Amino acid sequence: MSEVKRYDMEKEYSLDIVVIPVEESDGSFVKYEDYAALKAQRDALAGITAGQLEKLAGSMLNRTLDSGSKQAVAYAECADMVAKFAAKLRAGEPS
Description:
By secondary structure, the protein is α+β, with helices and mostly antiparallel strands. The protein contains two helices and three strands, in the order βββαα. α1 packs antiparallel against α2.
């Protein structure tokens, strides 16, 4: 995907007020096509990240089973939090 162009709106006064999109590096707007492409890219990255978090949660649970110490509860709780976050990420929910 090429670089996404950002725009701000500029008013032009003549006989009527006309709003014109002007390309700005820190503009508040993007074209819908670029937005859709960015959203698809974000969703793909979220899926990859969720998969990595699920692997991390599994490793943490294995460590919990191997440790047999007082830290086991902390590892299990942390693994549960990571797994829940991964599920929210896969579902597209905000963090």
